[in-house]
Amino acid sequence: MIIAMYEELTIKPPFFEIGPKAFFYGERMLKLAKAADEASAKYDVRIILTPQPTDIYLLAKETENLLIFAQHMDPLPIGRGLGSILPEAVKAAGAVGVMLNHAEKPMTMADLYKAIRRADEVGLATIVCADSIREAEAIALFGPNIIVAEPTELIGTGQTSDEEYVRATTWAIKRINPDIQVLPAAGIKNGQDVYNVIKAGAEATGTTSGIMKAEDPEAMMDEMICAVRVAWDEVHC
Amino acid sequence: MIIAMYEELTIKPPFFEIGPKAFFYGERMLKLAKAADEASAKYDVRIILTPQPTDIYLLAKETENLLIFAQHMDPLPIGRGLGSILPEAVKAAGAVGVMLNHAEKPMTMADLYKAIRRADEVGLATIVCADSIREAEAIALFGPNIIVAEPTELIGTGQTSDEEYVRATTWAIKRINPDIQVLPAAGIKNGQDVYNVIKAGAEATGTTSGIMKAEDPEAMMDEMICAVRVAWDEVHC
Amino acid sequence: MIIAMYEELTIKPPFFEIGPKAFFYGERMLKLAKAADEASAKYDVRIILTPQPTDIYLLAKETENLLIFAQHMDPLPIGRGLGSILPEAVKAAGAVGVMLNHAEKPMTMADLYKAIRRADEVGLATIVCADSIREAEAIALFGPNIIVAEPTELIGTGQTSDEEYVRATTWAIKRINPDIQVLPAAGIKNGQDVYNVIKAGAEATGTTSGIMKAEDPEAMMDEMICAVRVAWDEVHC
Amino acid sequence: MIIAMYEELTIKPPFFEIGPKAFFYGERMLKLAKAADEASAKYDVRIILTPQPTDIYLLAKETENLLIFAQHMDPLPIGRGLGSILPEAVKAAGAVGVMLNHAEKPMTMADLYKAIRRADEVGLATIVCADSIREAEAIALFGPNIIVAEPTELIGTGQTSDEEYVRATTWAIKRINPDIQVLPAAGIKNGQDVYNVIKAGAEATGTTSGIMKAEDPEAMMDEMICAVRVAWDEVHC
After folding, report:
1. How high is the ipTM of this complex?
2. Contact between residue B40 and residue B21 where contact means Cβ atoms under 8 Å apart
3. In chain C, which residues have their Cβ closer than 8 Å to the Cβ of D54?
4. Cα B225–chain centre separation
5. With the C-alpha atoms ordered A64, A67, A73, A79, is the resulting torsion angle positive or negative?
6. CA D105 to each of CA B193, D99, D102, D150: distance values in angstroms, whole numbers, following the listed order
7. Is A102 among the catalytic positions?
8. What pLDDT score was predicted for residue D4?
9. Which of C106, C107, C141 shows the shortest C-beta gap to A138?
10. pLDDT tens readout for residues D63-76
11. Is D158 helix (H, G, I), strand (E, B) or coil?
12. Dihedral in degrees, nearest 10, Cα atoms B179, B180, B186, B189
């Protein structure tokens, strides 16, 4: 019995996640967001941007094509809970989705399950991070929209090719629920890395430091989004 | 040796803290904020409002007199830290301060100390919560701007009068650092409660559920801010 | 692909879990443990006892039949980690297993997965708690030995019978991995409650407050273990 | 008004803390503990040993002179709280004290305050860790028996001598409460380091990796305890 997913937001592949974490905020974030907004239209690639919660309102208002996702939210109901991030408040600020369970903000299994249910309830898509293939399968049972797969088991083992890595994670997740989209992320540093992952069959990929630490973040972002389009067309056209 | 406090924002007493926690957000929050903005001018009472992080930008932009404080922030530096609330991002969104260490979002002693330092660094005033008089003293050593004192030790003991309570907490904190402002909060339900606390000598008080759960939150807010002014004038004029 | 389970400890059903939490410790714990040790032999029922970590050594040494499980352990390796509970230390003290992810000590998904792997590595059986049927399925993917199922979804809905409850959870877990043992726990207060759960088809059940808060804990424990045996024989003989 | 301290256990200086963290446990821990037990008598130096919770019972039973402290405990009362470490259970197992708020197990300010009160209540001495001089002062207000001072502010600044460091921390704490004992700890690697700290005026010091990672931990421990005695006699005789 596959769990019902949030279905209002379907992200047409290929797509790309830009994760500013706590690197960019305010004006600097807005500048990158506007450039990404244009790149999304120019290359016909969907872009998920996960800004600081305080930036959601402005970015949602000032961009047209970006999919603004919160970095995290708490599964609490409306009411008490000072210091929390309320699902309804995230939605009201203009986000269309939320990231959950990143390795830098891990959630208990019970909270993760509740947060995905709360996201469905208020109308937010979910992108959930998994540390291993086995965890990706467990998360797949909870019915998120997207799973970010960074299986530390496989990375750096030497004999693991990009293709094997993408195939193994994708297969494991789709076996549980074929509607879940899979975003393999593994140290994407430039357009070539992006090209390789998409060429290997992925629907999506993403980066934080690849863009945030680039000398020219807007140029690097453009290079990466362009690489998504090129690789996607080679595989799918 | 008294620790240097953040001095750019001096809140002229009397003042009042409205804590929406996860009760109000988005449009509903904005409506109350605008009413509070007017009440602040009308009664010449400073109002601290601590909204959800996603509401900071809009509320700071749409109000003139309110002091918008974040409900919480993390003491991390710019960089990694997905799911965090970055001090610089809070400031950039328009907040002038931050609440820390509320009983619903308790901080480790090390993080609390760092967060107060970070607030000073980026230019945010701090309002820090204490569970007991002893904790209030410890927090006073860290040099926050305001301490919210809800000493569970004294509340509900029967023989404790409002005046004794306000005096004991205020004295304990001011003995460490006379520049720290003290906000006694103890189940404020209506204008009369507000009147009693300010009449007993407090510079400030505040509430969450007194307003959030009121039948007419805007009317109750107005009643409370008015009570602050009336009591203050009786004591100080 | 079913994940390899820890196989050195096979608990022959029926069995019963006594959870002292932070109610009993030291001498009082030892007295109950000795009585349970006798009851285990007398009724041919396996008893899992989860004492405070400080009591593991003494209870393992002073009992013969009890299965001593830690209440929790951390997934860290040998080395740094002050304030942790090291898997190897739990094993060395005489425990044969460990409980993980109880609602009062919830674990992140990543830590839970790692802790089950660490348990396998050092030779400890695992009894993992699940808040809902969906979480029980996700946990089943991680290959624990036993899952404690307390599906809040079903409890207290009125139309839910004990039998339905036991069947639904058991079926969901065994469908993922038939070797995982299922322990339904739902407010067991006396021997009759125990009888009903086992009679409904369960291999095991357990309690905390049913025994800890009983007027005569040893007598109540004896009544419950006896009820396990009676119900089991009625179903299986 | 100085807070009342736990006074049943007075540790006569000089003393030394050995912190096995999650390095040593079971038989290996017992071997080191027995050697330390002898060294304590031989050199007339009090030794605090903070083993894994599962080792407290055995070590307390098998040693005569060691002061066995838990690595951590939770401030909960007897009752619910699975996965916790109950103060009464720590005491019953034979510990005479507890370490609190180590950087690897940081506590919220409220929990730290409660845990010190609970320790006083059940009869456990407290050794509390502080990350900075300011935190050490705040902790001093809570009335612990010993403060471990590792002020990251001063360490590694180059111009900071051992003596300055010991004096600054000691003075700051004793100014708040002269009865609190101060244990400066700063990368103690061998007997010479121990000698320097005690020679600089400290009542105590301690180490984890200095002993745990030594080629011959028992020999290194003996060298360090001997250095405590030699330095102490040079200063105080």
Report:
1. 0.94
2. no
3. 53-54, 56-57, 70, 85, 89-90, 92-93, 95
4. 14
5. positive
6. 41, 10, 5, 15
7. yes
8. 66
9. C141
10. 999 999 999 999 99
11. coil
12. 70
Q: Which stretches of A44-145 are DSSP H helices?
A: 56-62, 87-92, 109-122, 133-140
C89 CB neighbours in chain D (<8 A) are 22, 25-26, 52, 54-55
Residues in chain B with CB shorter than 8 Å from the CB of D137 are: 141
Q: Which of B62, B86, B78, B82 is nearest to B70 (CA)?
A: B86
Rounded Cα–Cα distance for residues A234 and B4 (Å): 61
Closest residue in chain B to residue A208, using alpha carbons only = B80
Cβ under 8 Å to C: D residues 182-201: none
Contact C55 D89 (CB under 8 A): yes
> Is the Cβ pair A109, C113 closer than 8 Å?
no
How far, CA to CA in Å, does A174 sit from each of A2, A135, A195?
11, 14, 22
Tokens of A196: 């390789």
Q: Do B19 and A56 touch (CB under 8 A)?
A: no
With a cut of 50, list the residues of chain A below it in pLDDT.
Answer: 155-161
Measured between CA atoms, how close is C102 to chain D, in angstroms? 7
Selection from B185, A181, D82 nearest residue C73 by Cα: D82
CB atoms within 10 A of CB B78: 15
Q: D52 with D22: CB under 8 angstroms? A: yes
Contact assessment for residue D129 and residue D101, using Cβ atoms and an 8 Å cutoff: yes
Q: Sign of the C-alpha dihedral, residues D228, D230, D231, D237?
A: positive
SS3 of chain B = CCCCCCCCCCCCCCEEEECCCECCCHHHHHHHHHHHHHHHHHHCCEEEECCCHHHHHHHHHHCCCCEEEECCCCCCCCECCCCCCCHHHHHHCCCCEEEECCCCCCCEHHHHHHHHHHHHHHCCEEEEEECCHHHHHHHHCCCCCEEEECCCCCCCCCCCCHHHHHHHHHHHHHHHCCCCEEEECCCCCCHHHHHHHHHCCCCEEEECHHHHCCCCHHHHHHHHHHHHHHHHHHHHC
Two tokens, residue B112: 């609390």
Contact list in B for residue D3 (CB cut-off 8 A) is 134
**B120 contact residues in D (CB cutoff 8 A):** none
Reduce the DSSP state of residue A46 to 3 states and report it. Answer: strand
Catalytic positions of B, written as ranges: 102, 150
Cα D81 from Cα C209, distance rounded (Å): 12
Count, residues in chain B: 237
* Residue bearing tokens 């807007």: A218
Per-residue pLDDT tens over the stretch B59-87? 999 999 999 999 999 999 999 999 999 99
Quick: pLDDT tens for D18-49: 999 999 999 999 999 999 999 999 999 999 99
Query: Which amino acid is it at D214?
Result: A
- Is the peptide bond between B14 and the residue preceding it cis, with omega within 30 degrees of 0? yes
Question: What tokens does B133 get?
Answer: 């008089």
Rounded to whole angstroms, the Cα distance separating A60 from A48 reads: 12
Residue C87 — pLDDT band, cuts 50, 70, 90? very high
Q: Are strands D181-184 and D146-149 parallel, antiparallel or unpaired?
A: parallel
- Enter the pTM of the model: 0.95
B to D contact (≥3 Cβ pairs closer than 8 Å)? yes
Q: Which of residues 36-75 of C touch D (CB under 8 A)?
A: 50, 52-58, 70-72
For residue D22, give both structure tokens.
């999650």
Please indicate whether, in this complex, the C-beta atoms of D105 and C88 are within 8 angstroms of each other. Answer: no
Interface residue D112 vs chain B (CB under 8 A): yes
- What pLDDT, on a 0 to 100 scale, did the predictor assign at position A112? 98
- Give the confidence band of D185 by pLDDT, cuts at 50, 70, 90: confident
DSSP state of C210: H
Residues 6+ apart with CB under 8 A from D201: D163, D166, D167, D170, D235
